[in-house]
Amino acid sequence: AAALWGYAVRATDVTTLDDFGLVTAVHPAFWAGLAVLTAGFWSTVRRTGRADAWSLAYVLVLLVMERATQALVYPTPLHAWAWKHDAVVGHLLTAGGLQTGDELGDMAVYDQWPGFFALQAAAVRLAGVEDTLTLMSWWPLISGVLLLVPLVLVYRTFTEDRRLIWTAVWVFCVGNWVGQDYFSPQSLALTLHLAVIALVLRRFPAAERRGPRQAVWTTALITVMVPVVLSHQLTPVVLIASLGVLALTRRHRDWVPLLAAVALFAAWNLTASLPFLSAALPEMLASVGDIGGNVETGYGTTPTGTGAVATSWAARGLSAAVMLLALLGAVRQRELRRHARPLLLLTGVPLLLIAANDYGSEMIFRVLMFMLPGAA
């Protein structure tokens, strides 16, 4: 499979792209390699006694085929917003620090949630390079690999069956088409969000007594929460709602994670990000309850052209299939409902966002992104 992919990358000519993009431009060897890889994965995951390293290897190759192809066939990074984020990192390096909203105008949102950009600026300085160009190209692959760690930890909380664990990971990787893994704050925030959920599920059971060990885990939890709050506007809201749902369950009735997240969120939003939130609050409140408007896609997210429309509907069909299969599994498997009830609840939490805001006509995509780990 890897050999077929390598040949396809060398044989693909992106100068002849049509409105289907890489779907039709990529050499047929790519699709042959993907078919071989999928068959090999299913053969491996069904065999008892196989080490997890085999399944992990297949998933890593899948991520390389999905996320590294564009980095190799295109001369420059994709995603227009990634270039904007590169400019923000450059601004941070040039200015040497944060600036006020009055100085930045519409760009103030980036300096008021600077966690991701500060991290990338530090990486640029440490690497001794001028910009994030190389990192931008490979970031989808990097973020995809980073996501595997909390994903596996979350799934292992509810089952020891390696077939279920790695099949869920595979479904997540295949179904993760939203494109939020580009060079962006939300890509990092999603990984850290899942890391917090994994820590709470595995290290904060309701019956756990307070002690030195739990204090260490609480410190680790807060350490992971801080960059989530400092990097993104929406992810902390989902995190707080998720921790609130977990705190209501008998198995994870521990209020410390929720209170810590609320305290960090309030502290940041009432200080550093208050200027932006004060200006945006009227518009945010106006969209509360407007479910129809909140799920509509706006300019820049509505596909145009036969190829773009076709691939858009194919992606929606993929998401619908994953969600329907997840619902069917929850209905038919009583053991799943009993043992994985917290995961089922976490999957439903993002739906609340639809009633809250349109998030720049991107809310439906963000909801799908946050639901996918649980649905898989």
- Distance between the amino and carboxyl termini: 24 Å
The sequence of SSEs as H and E is: HHHHHHHHHHHHHHHHHHHH
Structural class: mainly alpha
Low-confidence segments, ≥5 residues, pLDDT <50?
none
> How many individual β-strands?
0
Number of helices: 20
Give the overall form. globular
**What would you report as the Rg, rounded to the nearest angstrom?**
21 Å
Q: Percent of residues in helical segments?
A: over 70%
Overall pLDDT: 83
Tell me about this structure.
- The chain has 376 residues and is mainly alpha-helical.
- Among the domains are: 78-131 and 176-275, no CATH class; 287-376, no CATH class.
- The chain is 72% helix and 0% strand.
- It contains 20 helices and no strands.
- Helix 3 packs antiparallel against helix 4, helix 11 (185-203) runs parallel beside helix 13 (235-247) and helix 13 (235-247) packs antiparallel against helix 14 (256-269).
- The longest helix is centred in the last third of the chain and has 27 residues, at 306-332.
- The radius of gyration is 21 Å and the shape is globular.
- The mean pLDDT is 83.
